[in-house]
Design a protein that fits this description.
single chain, 250 residues, alpha/beta, Elongation Factor Tu (Ef-tu), domain 3, Rossmann fold, 6-stranded antiparallel sheet, 5-stranded parallel sheet, 11 strands
Length: 250
């Protein structure tokens, strides 16, 4: 079970790239076959390690974007950073059939399964959608009837990761997907046209409700702002879980 894997000793495994999906101009999803994968909970991550011929190693953490229902196949979505030594290789050079060293799953706080109840409230900024996508995919694969709402902030429509799949996952009264674009919108854009604010969160989520869990993932400024706003709107602190990333790394 994934819960056992979190508590057990982490070991490095050699995965094999079985698919590469272009999500946006700067983002790719890597589908990995991982023999002996112990399973994971949506929201967990893995460490990826690259080793050069001279022995130099670089290591980064990436959220798992796939649901536990995928078994020994996991998906990592990687945004290529111009100065990122790991992301540049993963999103630029890695090919189907290549090996990749990883260990995990890691993390236990920023996770959600159908057993955790509902409603499920998700807020993502940019590539912060990855662990939340694992939750939505698990929600769909498990046949959960718990209501789930995603508010996703992107720069432009071309920067929306998983755009087509998110459209497919959205269903009336079950999984609601709401977009906001911050740096330009196409003609006839039906979503929001600004950064996430208190009014938007109130309109999308409709206020706190018993048993609701809110997960926020993205750049540090977005995560801190949204978490503070949710608490100001009446959410209890233990109803809001956050995961953030800064401009460094890659």
């Amino acid at each position: 079970m994934a819960g056992t894997a979190v508590l057990g000793r982490l070991i490095w495994r050699v995965a094999t790239v079985s698919g590469v999906i272009v999500e946006t101009a700067g983002t790719k999803s890597l589908v990995l076959s991982v023999p002996g994968w112990p399973g994971h909970r949506p929201g967990q991550h893995v460490d990826v390690r690259l080793t050069a011929e001279d022995g130099y190693q670089a290591q980064r953490s990436y959220s798992i974007a796939s649901p536990p229902e995928d078994g020994e196949r996991i998906t990592l979505t990687v945004e290529r950073l111009d100065d990122g030594e790991v992301s540049t290789y993963l999103a630029g050079d890695l090919r189907v059939g290549d090996p990749l060293e990883l260990r995990g799953p890691i993390g236990g706080y920023f996770t959600w399964t159908v057993a955790d109840g509902a409603p499920l409230l998700l807020v993502a900024g940019g590539s912060g959608i990855a662990p939340l996508m694992a939750m939505l995919r698990h929600h769909a694969a498990s046949g959960s009837d718990a209501p789930a709402v995603l508010l996703y902030s992107s720069r432009t429509v071309d920067d929306i990761i998983y755009r087509s799949e998110l459209d497919e996952l959205a269903t009336p009264d079950l999984r609601t997907v709401v977009h906001t674009l911050t740096r330009g919108q196409p003609t006839g854009w039906p979503g929001y046209r600004r950064r996430i604010d208190s009014a938007m969160l109130s309109q999308v989520f409709g206020g706190p409700s018993p048993g609701a869990l809110a997960y926020v993932c993205g750049p540090t400024s977005l995560v801190e702002g949204v978490a503070t706003t949710l608490v100001n709107l009446g959410f209890a602190a233990d109803q809001v879980r956050t995961e953030r990333f800064g401009p460094t790394g890659g």
